[in-house]
Design a protein that fits this description.
Length: 121
């Protein structure tokens, strides 16, 4: 399995990553930021770390895990950057979120697996 990483920021050890301060977009629509932040919060925990990450913009404690949706992987605190600091994420990722939510909303549901097993436990 290969996951595409997003939301990792530059540091002295890894200087070639983006600086979140340069991605702040004060005009980013709040309802879209809420949707993106909620999506990020509902990912599945992929890895849990001992140390807490600090927000690069305000210094607050900002998670200690990596989250995934099976396609992307991001730091647990990425939603904080989106909702609190309006740090804009790539348009491709926003499109992925809308496509994924629409796909789930429109999915057909097969109840036969459950019906075949629910009474055999
Ligand atoms: Zn912050």
């Amino acid at each position: 399995m290969k996951l595409s990483a997003l939301g990792y920021w530059s540091s002295p050890e890894v200087p070639n990553l983006p600086d979140p301060a340069r991605l702040v977009d004060a005009d980013w629509d709040e309802s879209e930021r809420i949707l993106v932040s909620d999506y990020l919060a509902r990912g599945q925990v992929a890895r849990q770390f001992m140390g807490v990450s600090r927000c690069r913009l305000c210094g607050s404690a900002n998670g200690s895990a990596e989250m995934t949706d099976g396609t992307f992987i991001w730091p647990e605190g990425l939603g904080h950057y989106v909702i609190q600091h309006s740090v804009r994420l790539p348009r491709d990722f926003i499109g992925h979120i809308f496509a994924r939510l629409a796909e789930l909303d429109e999915a057909s549901v097969d109840r036969s697996w459950w019906m075949a097993r629910a009474f055999d436990v």
